[in-house]
Recover the amino acids of this structure.
């Protein structure tokens, strides 16, 4: 659609809306203006009939005083009287020097009518911000409670009507009003309507009826949308539509006759804010509705920005008090925000129209209708004219939304029909392709299997054990692939109804035993039992032997695959002339939705839930069709987490058939060649050598499929890695706590505990450099990679695994860990080697001074310094662990030198209460003691005490505590002490010590400190480490 045509449609539509509104005003005109003069309106000899008059004109005005409500007041004006035009703010009257519109006053108008009993009515609205209506001394109605003081005053601007019957020929109208909330305007801001009681009631009921009618229409639409959203929560557009309808309904009920305040006890400030937020919400959700309808897959920054600004503005409206002077500025921002969102809605729709979304023109017209309604609402609120409620803009808007949705529904229905036809053709093409591919792949696949089998048999004596095992693995994997090809061929024959059956009497228990033997190789490494619970005396059934074996094989293979531990059993029972065979497992089970579709072709359980992948989802579909071809049924009962029971039925053989087969019941029948191929047992993995090189990499591989573990081990053993395997996440975790590992390789999809969950648990105890994790995933989609990295994995490899890629990634990750460990040890040695010049200079000065005072002490200082330097530069400091005595010797020599230098300022106490012998990382205690001396004790002139405690035993672990009563630290200093990167002047190698302890023991330094009370630093050595 061209821009010119679009603009023409929009202009014509707006002109139509405006014209219809003007036509409405002709049938429902504004009340006639009465024009009272000097507070008197003479209606004698005129007659009201059924007219309604706007009492717009000069009223008597009595600022800051209440007129007596008595009707006996003469026409003589009381003191302080002035005349004020109504409607209008009383700020135009020179009655106060205040800078705001706060105050109270009385309005008075005398209406002269023809004598005789008549019933009159009044409608009052827009009086700021409380009022009471007295006529001939009678209180007829009120909105809020006007008072001379704010404390006694209650604000409300709810319109109200009143009526009375009189025969006096004169109406003395007095309106008492007070305002302490609206700083800018006070008094009567809307026309006071007057007429016969019948005319007033008709006008009032018509206005309320129109508002209720529109609200009911809107709420019905909103209710439908909410119900549809509850049925399909992914359809966010229904949610936004419902919220838009709710906001539009609230805006109607909060404006005009303010019905919401009539029904609920809402304050003036709350109701005003609610109305503003309702209008704002209408535009916000209309903007979101347009975005999700037209650009659901695109991120639109302007829309998000306007939504954010609206949220901030909502918070501003809520926070700013209604009677605060800032509220006026808020109102201006509010109008600008509404304008910006209106423009954005139109821009969204225009953009979609440029992209050939023809149905968006109805959204454009709907948005134009809502904008028109809102603009007229703003004009009405700021206009002194008593414009009545106009319902048709909103009705037209929702008709536009409905038209758009109907158009889109029919378009989607047409597209669905086309897609269904296209899908039917695609399915046929896919089946043909798979059938042809299966035929083409069978020959080369069997060639590979036969060549491998030939090499294995002819070179059996010369092959190494590992190579022979790899050839057997190749043959097994090839035969499993052959089974998949057979499934594809069977499916093709079933679809073409060309499958030939040869039914006859067969012993089901013999077939079951043979199939269970075929599948025992799949239980390697699993705590899983295969059990056959069919009695020997069970009668024979009628069926095609080969196809019954195929049915049993597929059902039992499926049960073994989805049962990580427990039992898979097969049972049978005779019910009348039918055999019911049950394949039962204690596996992961299925939910009802999966059970309903599990027998459809190419359907499988959700691997993200089951944790198991593989296969193409044909086995159960083929089973069902084969059973039905033999006159039986196949069904499943299952519960998630409680296992499954697959039941199929076959007819029982007659008595003669049973006797014929009785003689051969003890001998298992010959099985089809295809399934004999799958019965090959996998050879056990060769035992690992007891001696490994010093740099051997220890890898823990986890996969629920033993075949995959053997393939993985074969690839990595070529690099002389030490490979250990586990078949579940729980087994892997138990081994992680007992042994040291350089790398974990885990499959993502495993039953019970997925690779993601296993990685998360590992990361709770090991950092990414302490124990790298490499995930194996069948998919390489970005979301799969992201999930792995978020769980804490270092890298991933897509399956099927490429040997070169896997070795390269394993080498990279193990080298990373080795480099980090080496770097930390060298960093510790480097820190100690950099003995600060001041320490050496001061120690040498002390030795020089002692030369002339105390030769014996000088020799002791020289000996201590030489010992300190020898221990500090010793190459053993770069080793991972050293004896505790060696670390304490370094501490003693350091403290001896400092004690000789500072004498009474430094007091040292030792508490060495430990039994046995243990190792710890070098340079762990000495840096802590040096920090305590330098930063804790010597920073104070009076000095202090350093307490060194080593307690514990190899059975319970050891605890090392360094405490001082020195300067201490503030909470802020304590919180940044172990930050990385390090803070300035935090201490000698403190972060390095903490990181090395974390790496060695998984727990670092624990520090407590208070200013002027001292510091305590503690670390522990666990029993396992101390025993080691």
């Amino acid at each position: 659609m061209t821009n010119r045509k679009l603009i023409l449609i929009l202009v014509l539509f707006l002109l139509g809306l405006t014209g219809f509104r003007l036509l409405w005003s002709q049938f429902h005109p504004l009340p006639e203006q009465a024009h009272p003069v000097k507070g008197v309106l003479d209606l004698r000899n005129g007659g009201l009939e059924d007219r309604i008059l706007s009492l717009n004109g000069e009223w008597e005005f009595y600022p800051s005083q209440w007129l007596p409500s008595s009707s006996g007041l003469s026409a003589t004006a009381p003191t302080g009287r002035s005349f004020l035009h109504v409607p209008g703010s009383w700020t135009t009257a020179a009655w106060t020097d205040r800078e705001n519109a706060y105050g109270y006053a009385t309005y008075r108008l005398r209406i002269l009518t023809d004598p005789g009993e008549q019933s009159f009515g009044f409608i009052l609205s827009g009086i700021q911000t409380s009022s009471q209506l007295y006529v001939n001394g009678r209180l007829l109605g009120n909105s809020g409670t006007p008072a001379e003081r704010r404390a006694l005053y209650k604000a409300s601007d709810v319109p109200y009507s009143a009526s009375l019957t009189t025969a006096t020929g004169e109406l003395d109208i007095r309106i008492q009003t007070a305002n302490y909330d609206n700083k800018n305007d006070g008094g009567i801001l809307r026309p006071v309507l007057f007429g016969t009681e019948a005319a007033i009631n008709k006008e009032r009921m018509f206005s309320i009826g129109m508002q209720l009618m529109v609200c009911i229409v809107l709420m019905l639409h909103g209710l439908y949308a909410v119900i549809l959203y509850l049925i399909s929560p992914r359809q966010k557009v229904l949610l936004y539509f419902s919220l838009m309808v709710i906001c539009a309904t609230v805006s109607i009920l909060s404006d005009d006759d303010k019905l919401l305040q009539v029904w609920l006890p809402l304050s003036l400030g709350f109701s005003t804010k609610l109305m503003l937020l309702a209008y704002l919400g209408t535009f916000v959700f209309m903007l979101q509705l347009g975005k999700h309808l037209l650009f659901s897959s695109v991120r639109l920054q302007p829309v998000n920005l306007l939504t954010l600004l609206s949220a901030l503005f909502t918070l501003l409206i809520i926070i700013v008090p209604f009677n605060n002077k800032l509220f006026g500025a808020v109102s201006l921002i509010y109008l600008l925000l509404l304008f910006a969102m209106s423009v954005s809605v139109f821009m969204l729709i225009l953009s979609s129209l440029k992209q050939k979304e023809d149905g968006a023109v109805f959204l454009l017209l709907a948005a134009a209708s809502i904008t028109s309604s809102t603009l007229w609402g703003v004009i009405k609120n700021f206009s002194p004219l008593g414009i009545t409620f106009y319902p048709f803009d909103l009705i037209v808007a929702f008709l536009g939304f409905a038209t758009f949705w109907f158009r889109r529904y029919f378009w989607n229905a047409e597209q669905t029909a086309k897609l269904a036809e296209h899908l039917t053709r695609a399915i046929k093409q896919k089946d043909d392709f798979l059938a042809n591919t299966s035929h083409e792949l069978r020959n080369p696949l069997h060639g590979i299997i036969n060549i491998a089998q030939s090499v294995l048999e002819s070179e059996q004596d010369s092959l190494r054990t590992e190579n022979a095992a790899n050839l057997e693995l190749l043959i097994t994997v090839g035969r499993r692939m052959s089974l998949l090809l057979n499934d594809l061929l069977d499916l093709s024959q079933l679809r073409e109804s060309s499958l030939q059956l040869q039914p006859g009497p067969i012993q089901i228990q013999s077939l079951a035993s043979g199939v269970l033997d075929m599948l025992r190789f799949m239980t390697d490494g699993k705590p899983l039992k295969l059990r056959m619970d069919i009695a020997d005396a069970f009668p024979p059934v009628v069926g095609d032997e080969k196809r019954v074996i195929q049915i049993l094989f597929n059902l039992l293979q499926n049960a073994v695959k989805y049962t990580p531990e427990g039992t898979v059993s097969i049972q049978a029972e005779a019910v009348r002339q039918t055999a019911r065979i049950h394949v039962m497992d204690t596996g992961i089970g299925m939910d009802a939705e999966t059970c309903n579709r599990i027998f459809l072709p190419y359907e499988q359980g959700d691997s993200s839930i089951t944790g198991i992948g593989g296969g193409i989802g044909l086995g159960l579909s083929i089973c069902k069709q084969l059973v039905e071809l033999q006159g039986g049924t196949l069904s499943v009962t299952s519960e998630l987490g409680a296992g499954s029971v697959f039941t199929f039925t076959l007819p029982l053989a007659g008595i003669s058939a049973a006797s014929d087969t009785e003689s051969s019941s003890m001998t298992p029948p010959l099985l089809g060649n295809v399934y004999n191929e799958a019965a090959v047992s996998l050879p056990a993995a060769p035992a690992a050598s007891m001696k490994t090189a010093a740099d051997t990499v220890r890898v823990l591989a986890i996969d629920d499929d033993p075949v995959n573990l053997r393939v993985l081990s074969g690839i990595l053993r070529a690099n002389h890695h030490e490979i250990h395997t586990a078949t579940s996440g729980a087994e892997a975790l138990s081994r992680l706590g007992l042994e040291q590992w350089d790398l974990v390789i885990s499959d993502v999809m495993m039953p019970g505990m997925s690779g993601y969950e296993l990685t998360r648990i590992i990361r709770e105890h090991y950092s990414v450099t302490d124990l790298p994790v490499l995930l194996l995933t069948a998919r390489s989609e970005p979301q799969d990679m992201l999930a792995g990295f978020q769980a804490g994995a270092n890298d991933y490899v897509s399956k099927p695994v490429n040997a070169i890629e896997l070795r390269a990634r394993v080498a990279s990750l193990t080298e990373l860990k080795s480099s980090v460990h080496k770097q930390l040890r060298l960093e510790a040695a480097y820190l100690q080697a950099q003995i600060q010049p001041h320490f050496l200079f001061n120690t040498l000065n002390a030795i020089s001074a002692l030369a002339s005072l105390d030769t014996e002490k000088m020799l002791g200082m020289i000996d201590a310094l030489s010992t300190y330097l020898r221990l500090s530069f010793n190459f053993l400091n770069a080793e991972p662990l050293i004896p505790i005595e060696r670390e304490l010797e370094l501490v003693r020599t350091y403290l001896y030198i400092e004690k000789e230098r500072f004498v009474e300022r430094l007091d040292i106490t030792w508490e060495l209460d430990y039994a046995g012998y243990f190792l710890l990382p070098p340079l762990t205690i000495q840096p802590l003691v040096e920090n305590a001396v330098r930063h804790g004790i010597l920073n104070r002139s009076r000095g202090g005490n350093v307490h060194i405690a080593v307690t514990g035993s190899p059975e319970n672990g050891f605890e090392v505590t360094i405490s001082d009563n020195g300067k201490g630290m503030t909470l802020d200093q304590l919180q940044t002490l172990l930050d990385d990167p390090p803070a300035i002047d935090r201490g000698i190698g403190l972060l390095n010590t903490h990181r090395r302890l974390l790496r060695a023991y998984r727990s670092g330094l624990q520090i407590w400190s208070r200013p002027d009370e001292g510091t305590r630093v503690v670390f522990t050595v666990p029993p396992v480490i101390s025993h080691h």
Remarks:
- Confidence is low (pLDDT under 50) at residues 71-75, 656-694, 982-988.
- The longest strand covers residues 103-112.
